[in-house]
Write a structure and sequence with these properties.
The chain has 163 residues and is mainly α. It is built from seven helices and no strands. The protein has helices spanning 4-8, 24-51, 56-86, 90-111, 114-137, 147-153, 159-162.
Length: 163
């Protein structure tokens, strides 16, 4: 016996639903975010090595900062691809915020502004961990095209093709 609430509830799609599968561009985003997160989580370790008296830790921290910053820019390119191909803007916006924070973090660290470098570093690591969880939590649904996008996507047909 079906209740009124069950009749109004939309049918749930199964795991084989085409709209919920993970696309290649999303796998690339997941991979880059994962490598980026591993690299940024190493930064506090390298800073701790330096602060414990091993001055090679500062060289490792700088090399890690170069790697993290480069991975951030690579992630930004991948996020733009996800935005264009899957019409999902949130990975781009969150990555853009991370890249801006990492750039400020890099400049603050090289100029010795530790009053900004340390708290911004903690916030950046936390933000990237949250983004990592969001990207791996479930597939990104592809947003349907709006009617205006559908009209623009159709090629112009000649009179002979219309007949």
């Amino acid at each position: 016996m079906a209740t009124a609430a069950e009749e109004l509830r939309p049918a749930r799609s199964g795991p084989n639903d085409v709209t919920q599968r993970t696309r290649p561009s999303e796998w690339v985003l997941r991979a880059v975010v994962s490598v980026h997160m591993v690299a940024i989580c190493g930064q506090p370790v390298f800073a701790g090595v330096y602060l414990s008296g091993d001055y090679d830790g500062l060289r490792w921290h700088l090399a890690g900062a170069n790697a993290v910053t480069s991975l951030g820019y690579l992630q930004l390119i991948v996020a733009i691809t996800v935005w264009v191909r899957m019409r999902q803007v949130w990975p781009f916006l969150t990555t853009l915020g991370l890249v801006v924070a990492e750039t400020v973090q890099y400049v603050a660290g090289t100029s010795g502004a530790l009053w900004l470098h340390l708290p911004l570093g903690v916030m950046t690591v936390a933000a990237l961990v949250v983004q990592f969880i969001a990207v791996w939590r479930r597939p990104l649904p592809r947003r349907p095209r709006t009617p205006q996008e559908s009209v623009r996507a159709e090629p112009e047909r000649t009179g002979a093709e219309r007949a």
